[in-house]
Design goal:
By secondary structure, this protein is mainly alpha-helical. It has a single domain (about 20-105), classed as HAD superfamily/HAD-like (Rossmann fold, 3-Layer(aba) Sandwich). The protein is built from five helices and three strands; from the N terminus they run ααβαβαβα. The longest helix has 24 residues, at about 90-110.
């Protein structure tokens, strides 16, 4: 596959530097959030190893652990992956499903009185 063609699909390509800068996943995620001016609540970390999930948790980012990479489902779950994908097509399905759940939760919250409790009749 032509790497240059693949980069057209992304706004940016990030990784650690050759000198070791940002080799800790959480540091790299922090750099990306700042550089791209992203809010943690608007992004999802997709990763195949524990350090991907740990980095996402450090910045309060939702995470999808993928079992078709180097890590195992047990490793991903043990480090708190929010969702698990067994194939690339699962990722889109999980994002759409999770977004629908969030929308339903937000709608339900909007129906609650400001105190956060329902009146008893």
């Amino acid at each position: 596959m032509n790497f240059e063609l693949l980069t057209l699909l992304f706004d940016g390509v990030y990784g650690s530097e050759l000198d070791g800068t940002r080799s800790i996943k959480g540091d790299l995620i922090h750099h990306i959030l700042l550089t791209e001016k992203l809010l943690p609540s608007t992004v999802v970390m997709v990763g195949d190893r524990s350090h991907d999930i740990i980095g996402a948790k450090r910045h309060h980012i939702a995470s999808i652990g993928v079992t078709y990479g180097y890590g195992t489902e047990e490793e991903l779950k043990a480090h708190g992956a929010d969702l698990i994908a067994h194939s690339p097509s699962d990722i889109l399905r999980l994002i759409i499903l999770n977004d629908a759940r969030s929308s339903l939760r937000d709608a339900a919250r909007s129906l609650l009185p400001r105190s956060g409790t329902l009146p008893l009749h």
